[in-house]
Amino acid sequence: MDEPADRIGARIFSEDRRPGGPFRDGAFRSTKRSERVASVLGAALGATFSVCLLTGVASHYLQQPAAWLPWPARIAGLYRVTQGLHVVCGVASIPLLAAKLWTVYPRLFRWPPLRSLAHTVERISLVPLVAGSIFLLATGVVNIQYWYPFGFFFPRAHFWAAVLVAGALAVHVASQLHVARRTLGRANRSRRLAPDDTTDTGALTVERRRFIRGVAGASGLFALLVAGASVRPLRSLALLASRDPDVGPQGFPVNKTAASAGVDSASTGAGWRLQVAGGPVPASFSRADLLAMPPTEAVLPIACVEGWSASRRWSGVRVADLLEASGVDLASVKSVTFHSLEGDGLYSRSEHLRAFVLAPDALVALEVEGEALDVDHGYPARLVIPDQPGVRQTKWLSRIEVA
Length: 403
Ligand SMILES: Nc1nc2c(c(=O)[nH]1)N[C@H]1C(S)=C(S)[C@@H](COP(=O)(O)O)O[C@H]1N2
Ligand SMILES: [Mo]
Fold this sequence. Notes:
By secondary structure, this protein is an alpha+beta fold. Helix content is about 40%, strand content about 15%.
């Protein structure tokens, strides 16, 4: 695999300048390492990272949707699946990345360290690749724990780190594809070496197979530790998940309580009104007015970006019906913004495109599972829309504005 250094490289990194320590020949002796082990782990990481990238881009888009890009707004559970996969694949990547780094880090101490321009570019791209990947997994894990020890805004930092990693990964894959082809090829698959063979070839010893199986097992176990946050039968295994989808007021989780949002009983009491701006004159509805309108029922999930999700039967007034009752011309609606009593929190309002908000199941919900909403779930009224992230299912509605 080590091609000879080009001429300049050979002069700078001559053999008699080779440092000792980890740079000496045979400094790393574990027989678990080989190019094939690195390739197998790389391929597995390629798969989990690709799922994370696609589902991450989807989540990013849904949090700031653009009208020019259509999205299947009526598959109610789609975001639940994509975001669940995002978190599960991210967590499953942790053992894979750790094993991959352990397998390849001795290469940092090869001599000569830089062999050619192409080799130098490939080495440099490893810095954003490794640092970015660790950053993504670390910030993702603390985020699903609702722990924000860092000063930056998580979604933006996570997004830009992903852009960086995707670019560095493209360089890495392009430069390493020939190695993967060779080591994962048919000839190598059937070649086996004696257990103590330390040559860095593609072939697998018994020990290397066991190592890969162990890493795969650890990765599967990590996935199980969070999957239960959205897959109900796995709830009891979800030790790493910060929410149990069946625990909370009315039997499902709450991210922000009314008290922590500064929503008190004075503002949700008899004087509460839902204002609708966008018709010929501003409209206003009490909770009794809304309850008197034709009710619509829908089974929809709350799918939090943090990976937990819970599907419930909601009942309330269809957003389209409410707008019509307020005199809004539905044909000209482009987007609708929902404001909360919460005031000026990060999630105190949400703007939704026409396709989402006029869906037949898009509700101003008043009840869940046949009971009036708990105040922590958004009483007197909350938004519940198909295929939208939880952060955009605004609770404690106060005002609706049509654009
Ligand atoms: N006004 C307001 N609405 C909000 C939030 C908030 O902080 N303020 N949190 C959102 C988030 S992040 C989620 S996941 C859902 C959770 O809804 P639940 O508490 O009823 O489960 O509410 C959303 N609605
Ligand atoms: Mo959320």
